[in-house]
Amino acid sequence: MKILVSAFACHPEMGSEDGVGWGWVTGLAQRHQVHVVTRKARREAIEAALARRPMPNLCLHYADPPPWLIFWKKGSRGFMAYALLWQFFALIKGWHVCRKERFDIVQHLTYGNLWLPNYFFLLPGNFVWGPVGGGLVPAAFRAGYGWRARLVELLRGVVQRLLNRLNLPILLAMKRARLILVRTEETIRLLPKWAREKAVLLPETALDPAVFPFDPEQRNHQSQKPTLNVVYAGRLLPLKNLHLAIAAFRRSFSEHPELAGGLRFDVYGEGPQLETCRRLAGPELNRSIFFHGHLERGVLMERLRQAHLFTHLSAKDTAAMAPMEAMALGVPVICLNCGGMGNLVDSRCGVILEAGSPEQVVQTVADALGELARNRQELARLSLAARDRIERSFSWPGRIGQFEAIVEKALQRRHAAGS
C-alpha cells in the first residue's frame, strides 16, 4: 500500500508520542511506501537517523506555521494552540504531496483525540483516523486533586462533550473516516452512535524489544537485592495520582515496620505537582522517597534497569510508553485497570488494581509492596513475565500487522458495499 501519515510527533530518539510516531511510520515502511508530514523541528534528528539506517520506502515532508505566526510559543506555553494551528499547515503540505502522489490510505496519527481537530480527512484517499483517545479521570479520584485540577478536569469534560457533538471538523472527520482506530473501550463509548460501527480497538503504543537489552540471570539477581526499589517516571501532574503512591508508601511503613529501610521510591520527572508531592512525602520519608527531576533519556533507562517495580497509578492514560519501556527492561508495573492500561498489564506480569476508590488503591498498593518486598521469587517471576508480555504482544511488527489486518478488512467491506 501507499500511505500518507500526519504525525505531529515523530522523533527517533524520544519516547512518549514522538516515539510512537517514529515507531509507527518506520514499522509501516518495512512493507509499504510511506510518506510522512511532521514538524520541521524533528528534521535534524530524523535525517541523522536515516543516514545511519536508510529506509528507501520512507519519505519525509516537513511543515510548520511561519515564525511570525507563532512568536507567542515559548517552551510548553501555548503548546496545544500551536498543535491546533499546525494541523492547517500539515493539510497544506499534504495537498502538495497528493498533487504528485496517489495514496491508498491517508492517516492522522499522533496527538489523536476526540476534541483536537485534524484536517487530513479533506485529502483524497481512504481516511484512517487514529488511534485516538478520549475520556476523563473517574470522579472518585478527582476529589483528591486541588481545586484548579478539579476545575480543569470539569471543563475538559464539558468541552469534550460539546466538541464531540458540535465541532464541525471533528464530525466531518468521523463522517469521512473509513476507519476510526481507538485506544480504549471508553473512547468508543464517547463516539456518537452512528460513528461507533467504524471504530476498532487498537492501542497505538509498541516498541522494539531489541533496543532494550535483557538478561534473565541479571534480572533474577536484581530481584534479590535487599532494598525494594520502586520508580515513577513522567510528568508530575494531578491525573498521575502520585499522591496515592506516596500515601501507599507511608502506609506500608506504618503497617509493616519491618520494611523500614527496605523500601525506596525514586521519582523522575518534573511538573506542577512536584512541590505538592514533596510536602506529602514530608521529612519523615526523606530517606525513602527521592525526587530527581528530569534526566537525560539514556541515564533514565539505566536507572529503570536497576529498579524492581514501576508505579503508574494514572486514572486516565492509555498504555503509556514509560511503563511499557519499564516492562521491556523486565520491571513489572503496578497500575490501575482503567484508561487502557488493562491492555498492557495483567496479573501474570504485574499488579493491576481496580479503580474503585483512592482509599482502596492506597491499601492495595501498600499490601502489594509489602508482599513483593518479602516474596522475591514472585518478583522475579513477574519480571520475566513482563518482558515476555512485551515481546509477544507489544512489538512494532505485531502492532503494524494488526493495523494491516484491520485496514484490509475495512477496505474489503467498502468494496463489498460498492462504495
From TrEMBL:
Keywords: Membrane, Transmembrane, Transmembrane helix
GO MF term list: glycosyltransferase activity
Organism superkingdom: Bacteria
Bilayer-crossing regions: 79-98
Boundaries of every Glycosyl transferase family domain copy: 218-370
Pfam families attached to this UniProt entry: Glycos_transf_1 (PF00534)
PANTHER family: SULFOQUINOVOSYL TRANSFERASE SQD2
Protein name per the record: Glycosyltransferase
